[in-house]
From TrEMBL:
Family: Belongs to the SufE family.
Record organism: Mesonia profundi
Superkingdom, natural source: Bacteria
Record's protein name: SufE family protein
Pfam families, per the entry: SufE (PF02657)
SUPFAM superfamilies per record: SufE/NifU (SSF82649)
InterPro entries: Fe-S_metab-assoc_dom
Residue span(s) of domain Fe-S metabolism associated: 2-115
Amino acid sequence: MFEDWMQRYEYMIDLGKSLPLIDESHKIEENLIKGCQSKVWLNAELNDDKVVFTADSDAIITKGIVAILIRSFTNQKPQAIIDADTHFIDEIGLKEHLSPTRANGLVSMVKQIKMYALAYQAKLN
């Protein structure tokens, strides 16, 4: 779809701009992703047995990264998120084109998304 990584970065930035913003009341310490160089807030709520994520970041590339993850995982049932194969991240080459600290942040975001799903799955059982 894109000829080079600059076009992909521009697309990620655009995705970040279209990200449904997290409510300001959820921009709290407990919702900060640990392990990210930038500040990334991630909130999850269970609506009709599906997890709905909202997020924000203070860095435009990171905001784009979390937007990709939210598009992939929001409005899914908790078990589907738990079972989800995240190899698409490697397949699109995202991790290899990020700095080591951003790549660590990406892994931390995926872990937090899965942790929310585990918590909601436990509530449903």
